Each structure stands twice: as structure tokens, then as C-alpha cells.
Amino acid sequence: MPHVPNELKYTRDHEWVRVTRDGVVRVGITDHAQKELGDIVFAELPAKGTGLSAGEPFGTLESVKAVTEVYAPVSGEVTALNDELNDSPEMVNTEPYGDGWLIEIAFTDRSELDRLLDDDGYESYIREGAE
Fold first, then answer.
1. What domain range is 61 assigned to?
2. Which of 3, 16, 20, 81 has the CB geometry, 3.0–4.6 Å to 8, for a possible disulfide?
């Protein structure tokens, strides 16, 4: 079973969400997702100030296997992106819950966080073979 930290929230699209400060979340992809994708070679992320809607794509990750979209877990505005991924996209693989984060979002609706999965829910979702 992939590592699933209990302090995070998760989407059915395999993104994780960490509240970093009041009204702001940091977003990345899960350990399960990075293992499925294989070696990440490029990350295309939105510019700061980009408005996002929950469930909509905000960028892509390119691996040796495929290019896949990543989705906004909450609605809001991009306040930061992980510029280190420009030179070291492999951090998404080696540290998916740490230095391999993707973006930060100032979210507009706290209730959207309540719709995300907790660690137990996400683990069950993976076990069910969700794609």
C-alpha cells in the first residue's frame, strides 16, 4: 500500500491537500499517483494569480509513460507554485508529500475541503482499484 499521511485530505483524482495557513492550501499528487505515472520529467503549472475551480485541470505532469492532467481540489487563486520543479521535476517522485508539491491556492469556500477524502477514505478508494 502506498504511503498515505493522515493529516492530509485527498481527491479521487489522486491529489493531496494540506492547509498551510488560514485560507491557503498546498497541493501535490499522492504517492500512489506518482508510482502509477513513473518518472516525472516535466511539470506544467499555472501562473500566480490564476483563478481555479474545484475539479478543473490546472496543469499537467509529463512522465516517461504519459502526460496527465492535475486537478484543482478547491476553488480559488494560485498564490505560489513550486519553481524548483522546473529544474528537478523528479521531486514529485522522490518527495510527493514534501518538496515535490505543485501549487498553493488561496481558497474561497472552506466547505470544499469537507468534500475531500480523509486518509482512510483515500486508502479504501485505492484498494477498490479506482483509476
1. 9-126
2. 16
- Mean pLDDT, consecutive 10-residue stretches, the chain (131 aa), reads 90 96 95 96 97 97 95 98 96 97 96 97 90 51
Contacts 24+ apart (CB under 8 A), 78-81: 78/46, 78/47, 78/48, 78/49, 78/50, 78/51, 78/52, 78/103, 78/104, 78/105, 79/24, 79/48, 79/104, 79/105, 79/106, 80/48, 80/104, 81/45, 81/46, 81/47, 81/48
The pTM of the full predicted model, rounded to 2 decimals, is 0.94
Number of domains in the chain: 1
Query: Domain for residue 1, yes or no?
Result: no
